[in-house]
Amino acid sequence: MKRDGHHDVADVSGRSSSGFGLMELLISTVIFLVIASTLFGLLVEVQRKTSYQAEVQTILNNTRLAIQTVGRYVRQAGNDPAKCGLSGIIQLSTSELLVESDITGSAGPSNPNKGDPDGDILDSGEKIRLRYNGATRSLETITGSGAVQTVAGSISDMAFHCYNAAGNPASSGEEVRRVHVTISGESLLPDPVTQKRFGVQLHSDFEIAM
Question: What is the pLDDT of residue 14?
Answer without folding.
Answer: 47
